[in-house]
Structure formats: C-alpha cells, structure tokens
C-alpha cells in the first residue's frame, strides 16, 4: 500500500493528539494498553509497555521505511521535530534547549564531560538514592581525582539540611535522581536548585522516573540540566531520550563529542563545481542544544512511538495521571506492612514508585510469576509502580497473591 505524507504524519505525528482524543482518554486506560490482557503489570518503572496507538504509529513508520522512504523524504525529520517539541512542552522548556541522546546515562555523561570533570577541579555532590550507574560514573571519576561527596538518606529521604552541609563554594555540580529508582523518593527540585545556585553550583536531574509520571517544570525549578530516556513513563522505547540544558549555559558547557547532527551548514571545496577554498570543507555549528550534544543517527521507530505517546500524555495531563495513581499507592502503603513488608518509601510520596523491604524474596518471585503478576523483585526488596491502566482490582490481585 502506498502511503502519502499526510497518511504518515496522521499516523504518528500531528494527528497523535486527535487519536488520543478519539480514544476518550479516561482513566484507567485499559483499552489503550494490550498488556492488560496477559498480566497484571505493576512494574512500569522498569520498562513501560507501549500503547496500542503507539504500536500503530510504529507500524506506519516501518511501512514507510520498508517502502524506501521516497513517498515522504522528510518524514523522519517530522517525527523527530514533533517529539522534541512535545517533550519540551511537557517540561516547560524551549525546543532549542532539548538535545536527543541515546539514554539518560549518556546525557549525564555529556554533562560531566562538558563541565570537564574532574580536571576542572571542585567537587560533585550526589546521594545514595541516585541511579547506580551514576554512582559508578562519579566513583570512577573520583579515582581520577574528583572530590566526591555522597549524602546518605535518613528515614528514606535525602534531607536538604544534609545537602547543605556538603555543598560549598567549590561545588561544581549537584547530581541527583529527581525520583529515585530505589524507593520513589522525590527531591524538592526547586529547593535543591536554590541551595546549589546560592553557592555557585549547577544542578543535574536524572528525570527518567519523573517525566510523564509527575509534573516537571524546568523553568519554575531552575534546574540546569535534565536527562530522560523514553522507555519508562514516556511509554516510548530504548535508544532515544532527551537532554535539557538551560539556554544560557550552552556556551559554558564544552562539546565533548562531535558528529554531523551538530552542523548547521557544510560547504565542500574539493569536489567538482565546489567553490574554491583552502580547507577540505567549511562548516557552521548549530547553536541550539542539539548542535552541542547530538552526534549521529537516531531511533526513528522510537520517535514514531513518541509522536503518539507524548501527545497522549499531554492530552491526559500529568496531573491527572498522578492523581489517578495516588489511591493505588496509598493502599499499598497501608496494606503491605500488614503482610510483613517494611516500607522504604516515605509516607505522602507523590512519585510513581513504592518500595518495601523483605528478607527473603526468592519464593515470592516464583509465586507472582505463576499468578501472572509483574512487580520488580530484588534481593531483600520489592518495587511496585502502577500506571494509567492499573486500578484497584490490580492491587487486589497483588495483595491476594502476597497473602
């Protein structure tokens, strides 16, 4: 079947919002996610299933790709631009402040390299509820001479007073998970930024467990850097994420990698009919975030997925998503301790994650698998993360399996 450009964009771009509206995005969104037919999935913080509409958008892109792409030569660019624009709207940023990155971890590495850590001196402050890959990153830099300061939790929170004790005039960067993958603890991002900025430090937020699940406003918080993959609460897939860099910082953060996506203009001087010039080619770098941090090709299948899912999230509203989830989490906080699980998530948390400690979880994992219930089971703890398609009946089934 031949697809026109209008067909393609309607499938995975501009008409994504219209598709979401037609689906009547009421919660719980069981009709939007096929996973509800096979299991009780309460493990969305691991790898969120993509929706039915997003699957159709990906299929349309793959059909375009299978046809060679001649029908709409700018289709991939349309997908990429729309995804970047919608993500910027979701976090209250400008599209020019957003760069594509392969993952959250790559984004954080680009920030650290752009600040020339550890060679530029100073110290970095983080906490034990930050992502383990990030703790490894800064631990490796500490072996190269970085002054690394790690704050430990009290009552499963990172206390602002404890951060204040270690952030000083030599702190270059405060790095954190806005919502911790460990237990769902959520920093008061504005309070941390106000503290860090008062002492001349910059702030990086890993927002992979936040954006799409809780409201995030980079303007109101004042955060300097934020990175987010798309395969969790943005209901995208692996291989494509976003890095936000505050506009006035772009020229202060050096490029540490180089690639064709950073080029705004290229002019060769060596091929037939080229204008004369001494160099092989002249170029102009793009001045936006993509021009600083993007390197090579992107996952267009994930961009197609995001064209639908970001529209869907914006149509639902993150505040509505958060409000839908809260009664489910409150019930878990109330009932799980009665079943012998020790709460590791602070009471009153509004993040999408609750975590509980238990000495032995080996038998538990097998029991849940037999019941077709998916939560994250680790040695000595479990993590539960409901989403837009979950309801109290899912919590009933989980609690019954754990009883």
What does this structure look like?
This protein folds into three domains: 80-258 and 289-298, Aspartate Aminotransferase, domain 2; 259-288, no CATH class; 318-402, Aspartate Aminotransferase, domain 1 (Alpha-Beta Complex). The chain has helices at 5-12, 16-22, 52-66, 75-91, 104-114, 132-142, 160-166, 189-198, 218-221, 289-293, 300-316, 318-335, 362-370, 392-402; strands spanning 40-41, 98-101, 123-127, 147-151, 171-177, 202-206, 225-229, 241-245, 263-268, 281-285, 342-343, 354-357, 373-374, 376-378, 381-384. The strands form four sheets. It has a seven-stranded mixed sheet with strand order 2-8-7-6-5-3-4, with helices on both faces. A four-stranded antiparallel sheet has the order 11-12-15-14, covered by helices on one side. Helix 8 links the parallel strand 5 (171-177) and strand 6. With 403 residues, the protein is α/β, with parallel strands linked by helices. It is globular, with a radius of gyration of 23 Å.
Helix and strand composition category: alpha/beta
Number of helices: 14
Mean of all residue-level pLDDT scores: 93
Work out the helicity level: 25-40%
CATH topology of the largest domain: Aspartate Aminotransferase, domain 2
Task: Classify the beta-strand content into a percent band.
Answer: 15-25%
Radius of gyration: 23 Å
Q: What is the correct CATH architecture of the largest domain?
A: 3-Layer(aba) Sandwich
Spell out the helices and strands N to C: HHEHHEHEHEHEHEHEEEEHHHEEHEEEH
Which CATH first-tier class of the largest domain would you pick? Alpha Beta
Strand order of the largest sheet: 2-8-7-6-5-3-4
């Amino acid at each position: 079947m031949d697809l026109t450009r209008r067909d393609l964009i309607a499938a995975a771009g501009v008409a994504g919002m219209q598709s979401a509206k037609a689906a009547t995005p009421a919660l719980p969104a069981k009709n939007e996610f096929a996973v509800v037919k096979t299991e009780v999935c309460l493990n969305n913080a691991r790898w969120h299933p993509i929706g039915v509409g997003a699957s159709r958008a990906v299929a349309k892109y793959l059909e375009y790709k299978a046809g060679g792409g001649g029908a709409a030569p700018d289709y991939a660019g349309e997908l990429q631009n729309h995804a970047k624009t919608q993500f910027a709207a979701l976090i209250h940023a400008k599209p020019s402040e957003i760069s594509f990155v392969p993952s959250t971890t790559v984004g954080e590495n680009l920030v650290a390299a752009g600040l020339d850590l550890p060679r530029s001196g100073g110290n970095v402050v983080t906490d034990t509820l930050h992502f383990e890959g990030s703790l490894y990153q800064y631990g490796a830099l500490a072996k190269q001479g970085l002054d690394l300061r790690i704050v430990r939790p009290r009552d499963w929170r990172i206390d602002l007073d404890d951060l204040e004790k270690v952030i000083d005039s030599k702190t270059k960067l405060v790095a954190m998970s806005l919502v911790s993958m460990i237990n769902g603890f959520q920093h008061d991002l504005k309070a941390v930024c106000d503290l860090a900025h008062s002492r001349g430090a910059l702030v990086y937020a890993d927002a992979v467990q936040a954006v799409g699940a809780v409201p995030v406003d980079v303007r109101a918080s004042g955060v300097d850097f934020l990175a987010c993959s798309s395969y969790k609460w943005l209901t995208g897939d692996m291989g494509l994420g976003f890095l936000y860099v505050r506009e006035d910082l772009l020229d202060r953060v050096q490029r540490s990698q180089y690639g064709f996506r950073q080029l705004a203009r290229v002019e060769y001087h060596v091929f037939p009919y080229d204008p004369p010039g001494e160099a092989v080619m002249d170029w102009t770098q793009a001045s936006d975030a993509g021009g600083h941090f993007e390197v090579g090709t992107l996952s267009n299948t994930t961009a197609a997925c995001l064209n639908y899912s970001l529209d869907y999230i914006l149509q639902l509203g993150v505040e509505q998503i958060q409000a839908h989830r809260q009664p489910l989490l409150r019930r878990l906080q109330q009932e799980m301790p009665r079943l012998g699980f020790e709460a590791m998530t602070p009471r009153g948390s509004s993040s999408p994650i609750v975590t509980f400690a238990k000495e032995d979880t080996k038998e538990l994992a097998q029991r849940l698998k037999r019941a077709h219930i998916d939560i994250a089971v680790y040695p000595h703890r479990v993590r539960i993360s409901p989403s837009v398609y979950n309801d109290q009946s899912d919590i009933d089934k989980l609690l019954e399996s754990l009883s």
